[in-house]
Amino acid sequence: MNICVFCSAADLDDRYVKPARKFAELIGQGGHALVWGGSDTGLMKVMADGVQEAGGKLLGVSVEFLAHKARTNADEMVVTKDLAERKAQLLARADAVVVMVGGTGTLDEATEILELRKHGMHGKPVVLLNTAGFYDGLRSQFERMAAEGFLPIPLTELVFFAEDGAGALAYLEEQVNIEG
User: Fewest Cβ atoms nearer than 10 Å: which of 19, 47, 71, 123?
Assistant: First the structure.
């Protein structure tokens, strides 16, 4: 399975790095490929290192203005002209999507992927990996959106909240086997 992971390129606290490293190892050990933003910095590097060291493949999609930060030893690296093309390529190469901790770029990626899913533009499972409660506020907002009629599909069909990488991977493996 090709798992697209959206996450930060920033160096982060161990409360985010350690669970990310464990999740990356699970992806690699499971024989899965990481589809990611291609950066060799921050949490993106942690994920790429962990997947690669555990025997998984790396499929990177960078963007021209960040190409100087791209990982040089990925199994595949594509460089797109802009962020919109990058997001489209990431989704096209993935069987499933996991949104990890991150800033505005990660939030932008998450909301676009969820909006496309909401409108039936893709049926790939989407997981918000809620490491250290990072997405508790967003979960509350989504629950309010659902309760007040802003979501045309049930929240459980839109996104799955996982508390750890093992739970995220188990959900994805189950969903991809059901759907494909």
Answer: 123
How far is 21 from 85, CA to CA, in rounded Å? 28
Q: Is 85 exposed, middle or buried (0-12, 13-18, 19+ CB in 10 A)?
A: middle
Give the Cα separation of 109 and 115 in Å (integer). 10
Between CA 163 and CA 165 the distance in angstroms is 7
Q: Which of 77, 83, 85, 41 is nearest to 60 (CA)?
A: 77
Amino acid in position 29? Q
Quick: pLDDT tens for 98-149. Answer: 999 999 999 999 999 999 999 999 999 999 999 999 999 999 999 999 999 9
% of the chain with per-residue pLDDT over 90: 97
- The whole-angstrom separation of Cα 92 and Cα 121 is 11
For the record, the structure tokens of 103 come out as 């800033």
Alpha helices in the chain (DSSP H): 14-29, 42-53, 83-93, 104-118, 136-147, 155-158, 165-179
Return all residues near 83 (Cβ < 8 A) that are at least 6 apart.
63, 105, 108
End-to-end C-alpha distance for the chain, whole angstroms: 10
Looking at residue 45, its pLDDT comes to: 96
pLDDT of res. 114: 96
